[in-house]
Amino acid sequence: MSLQENGPSIAIVGVTGAVGQEFLSVLSGRNFPYSSLKLLASKRSAGKTQLFENQQYTIQELNEECFDGVDIALFSAGGSISKKFGPIAVEKGTIVVDNSSAFRMVEGVPLVIPEVNPEAMEGIKVGSGRGGLIANPNCSTIICLMAATPLHRRAKVTRMVVSTYQAASGAGAAAMEELLQQTREVLEGQEPTCEIFNQQYAFNLFSHNAPIMSNGYNEEEMKLVKETRKIWNNMDVKVTATCIRVPVMRAHAESVNLQFENPLDENTAREILSKAPGLVIVDDRSANRFPTPLEVSNRDAVAVGRIRRDVSQEGDYGLDIFVCGDQIRKGAALNAVQIAEMLL
């Protein structure tokens, strides 16, 4: 991140959380220009200091006055905070990039993955004098669509079946800490501490902890369904998902089965994916080497492999792929910062 007089003024809401801290790391790593920086958090963290690019900042308590003179606010403090303070910030002329689920499905609010649908936020720019609201999609949606979209553009996906293997980071820094603690406890023969999740997480996996809805799907699964339709601007695409928590620290893996309207063979698919921005192919069949969460942790690119024809479908109308992406980076902070870069 570089201090520039003519850069935008930035505020980070929820700076002490896992994604908030990652915002700082990504902004710095991408040399994002800024004229000033406000670090905002709850009353609990107010007054603490944060070193950023050799400067000490004092974390301020989030309130309505915080957004005076702020050009871009990156929010990652949970849905209720976003619902309360997002509109206040917009009213003051701030462009809000929100990482919660609060506004994703709101009519007229762009839901954006920069490599997938940048046109959705056309006309929203810093310096236009108008505030605005842009939603960051759910992490599992971003990671899935980074790989599925280039194939969809070529052959049109009619149905997509997704199974996710989701990391602790998706439930925040405290969940990552609990996974570490539980692993130690189980190895030492003690009862595992289950505060964040109501069951043992170490050496185990379980259905995603999002609330179950009346149709039997959980909220995380339905996010994949609804957000895909909105991002692709296609209400007809059929999507079904099963989301699972696995004892991995910070990167999600997803098995994605695609059914196409037009034929697409695996070699063409591999070629398309190799040229897609933000993707890296890890697909070595002879060495049995494919994407792993560990390899993509702390990396920007989403890895895709296991690219193969779906033998359960006739002809070249189906493919299976396996995708891994860092949930905190591309699944959250990086995507939001890329959106902010498009506002300049």
From TrEMBL:
Give the positions the UniProt entry annotates as the active site. Answer: 139, 252
Semialdehyde dehydrogenase NAD-binding domain ranges (all copies): 9-124
Q: Which pathway does it serve? A: Amino-acid biosynthesis; L-threonine biosynthesis; L-threonine from L-aspartate: step 2/5; Amino-acid biosynthesis; L-methionine biosynthesis via de novo pathway; L-homoserine from L-aspartate: step 2/3
Q: Which ranges does the record mark as transmembrane? A: none
One GO MF term attached to the UniProt entry: aspartate-semialdehyde dehydrogenase activity
Q: Which InterPro entries match?
A: Asp_semialdehyde_DH, Asp_semialdehyde_DH_beta, NAD(P)-bd_dom_sf, Semialdehyde_DH_NAD-bd, Semialdhyde_DH_dimer_dom
Catalysed reaction, written as an equation: L-aspartate 4-semialdehyde + phosphate + NADP(+) = 4-phospho-L-aspartate + NADPH + H(+)
- The EC designation for this entry is 1.2.1.11
Q: Which processes are annotated in GO (biological process)?
A: diaminopimelate biosynthetic process; isoleucine biosynthetic process; lysine biosynthetic process via diaminopimelate; methionine biosynthetic process; threonine biosynthetic process
Is-annotated flag, keyword Oxidoreductase? Answer: yes
For the keyword Ligase, the answer is no
Q: Mind listing the UniProt keywords for this protein, alphabetically? A: Amino-acid biosynthesis, Diaminopimelate biosynthesis, Lysine biosynthesis, Methionine biosynthesis, NADP, Oxidoreductase, Threonine biosynthesis
- A single Pfam family it belongs to is Semialdhyde_dh
- Cross-referenced SUPFAM superfamilies: Glyceraldehyde-3-phosphate dehydrogenase-like, C-terminal domain (SSF55347), NAD(P)-binding Rossmann-fold domains (SSF51735)
| Root EC class | oxidoreductase
List the PANTHER family. ASPARTATE-SEMIALDEHYDE DEHYDROGENASE (PTHR46278:SF2), DEHYDROGENASE, PUTATIVE-RELATED (PTHR46278)
Similarity remark: Belongs to the aspartate-semialdehyde dehydrogenase family.
Could you give the subunit structure recorded for this chain? Homodimer.
Q: Which HAMAP family match?
A: ASADH (MF_02121)
Q: What is this protein called?
A: aspartate-semialdehyde dehydrogenase
